[in-house]
What we know:
29% helix
Amino acid sequence: xxxxALLNIxxxxxxxxxxxxxxxxxxxxxxxxxxxxxxxxxxxxPGIPDFLSVLxxxxxxxxxxxxxxxxxxxxxxxxxxxxxxxxTAAGALGARRLVSHAELKxxxxxxxxxxxxxxxxxxxxxxxxxxxxx
Length: 134
């Protein structure tokens, strides 16, 4: 049995398969998934699981070098933004790169995996860029 918080087999496998610079998308329930992008669909009902719970579980196993966030997220101020700011300030998400929401969606096509949450707050999407532990 695993010791870490991340119990989902598909997510654990995805994290274990990451290389330096690979991208992981955590998306809200409405974020489109480009054809060919592997999807781990966790959405059960609106709000379950929420964005932050999925992010925290991933961070328990994933080394993050940086993250990409849509400029629109800062303008819309979804509830998860305060936690994203706290995690960024603590260094858990590495450096931030702001892009347009359209660019964020386009960058999903090159992701190693996209995770669909039950989050239903607009612009609650994030791309994590994998780092290395050495």
